[in-house]
Amino acid sequence: MIAKLKGRLDSTGLDHAIIDVGGVGYLVGASSRTLAALGPVGEAVTVHTEMLVSEDSIRLVGFARAEERDWFRLLTSVQGVGSRVALAILSALEPGELHRAVATGDKAMIARANGVGPKLAQRIANELKDKIGAVPTSAGAAGGGFAAVPVGGHSADAISALQNLGFKPAEAGTAVAAAEEELGEGASLDALVRLALRKAAK
């Protein structure tokens, strides 16, 4: 499983980027939002990735932020939402906007994405509502939508780590926000995850 790529941006297309990692070019599908966030060709980049394995292919999808990858996983768990539709939704909506739309059942906002009709938008809202927690605060929207998590630092990776351990996005976001507030912005990822785990377990 390839979870992250760190290398140089070789080139970009309408729906993908090629990341040069040690002389090997990885073709990574991506939303327009992620492609815009990668910066100029030739610069160093880090992308969070999801590997999609089917009978006849193995593909990578890349995300500028871990929150986008987490939303991609949630979206593709809904029947009728494949990788292309999920990326279209993430191109149209910030994670915080998507969180708010799902939490409030705003199918019109979800349907702004190409290829998403009213019925599919309603299904997405219905199936994901119980998985995402409460409506985010404005600070939460800035941090990715799951909770009031400060932007930057190791918060996104810490949230992802807690979710991989089985915590819901809202629980993980709240615990990481509390841990980062206590430890300060300079905290290491390891220390942040350890303290967040203790807070989430209370």
TrEMBL record:
Its main location: cytoplasm. GO terms for cellular component: cytoplasm; Holliday junction helicase complex; Holliday junction resolvase complex. Residues 1-64 are annotated as: Domain I. Residues 157-202 are annotated as: Domain III. SMART domains: HhH1. InterPro entries: DNA_helicase_Holl-junc_RuvA_I, Hlx-hairpin-Hlx_DNA-bd_motif, NA-bd_OB-fold, RuvA, RuvA_2-like, RuvA_C, RuvA_C_sf. It is found in: Cytoplasm. The RuvA-RuvB-RuvC complex processes Holliday junction (HJ) DNA during genetic recombination and DNA repair, while the RuvA-RuvB complex plays an important role in the rescue of blocked DNA replication forks via replication fork reversal (RFR). RuvA specifically binds to HJ cruciform DNA, conferring on it an open structure. The RuvB hexamer acts as an ATP-dependent pump, pulling dsDNA into and through the RuvAB complex. HJ branch migration allows RuvC to scan DNA until it finds its consensus sequence, where it cleaves and resolves the cruciform DNA. Has three domains with a flexible linker between the domains II and III and assumes an 'L' shape. Domain III is highly mobile and contacts RuvB. This is Holliday junction branch migration complex subunit RuvA. The gene is ruvA.
